[in-house]
Amino acid sequence: MRIAPGGVKQKTQMGLRALAAAGAGMVLTLHANAGAAPPPNVGMIVPGQGIGPVRIGMTTAQVRALTESLPCEIAVAYAEGRASRLETNCGVAYQTAEGITVGLDGSRIWWIHGQPELTVPSNFARTRAEWLVYRGAGIGFRVIYAEGGTLIQAISIFRGTGSPGVTRPPVVPPAAPPPAVGE
Questions:
Q1: Running DSSP on this structure, what letter comes out for residue 68?
Q2: What distance in Å separates the CA atoms of residue 82 and residue 66, rounded to the nearest whole number?
Q3: Residue 56: domain span
Q4: pTM, whole model, 2 decimals?
Q5: Looking at the domain assignment, is residue 119 inside a domain?
Q6: Cα separation of 131 and 140, whole Å?
């Protein structure tokens, strides 16, 4: 990271690649232990509910009380004095139960969540990016398209509609078993 004018931290492209590589190794380990508890010091991202200890519906005072204990910043938007949207740009510090975290390749999103209900362009500095929004679950992912792939740049949580917008077709068993080899 480097400090830009005004004290804003900016990740370099090389830093993003290193973060993605580090996160990819961690996710492979987590995927092999599906259902196991997250690694120590990793806050869970729960769609429609929260990021780490910060939850949708908390008051400003409740969020502020947690600020010092967070491993990295969580951006909070408020409606009627309560947290209504949370966003993290931190890789590895927060992850979903499936191991999705900022800094990883975005293909995991489609594999786990399917087609997004909504895509919103979010280009910046001549870089193509978009928010992939899953309203039913209450989660969104900002992905950056570059160098033949995607990179998760941010994850957002909001109150979901409760009705999944992505339905997978049912798996129908075959009418008859396939023929044996050589028949």
A1: G
A2: 15
A3: 2-158
A4: 0.69
A5: yes
A6: 6
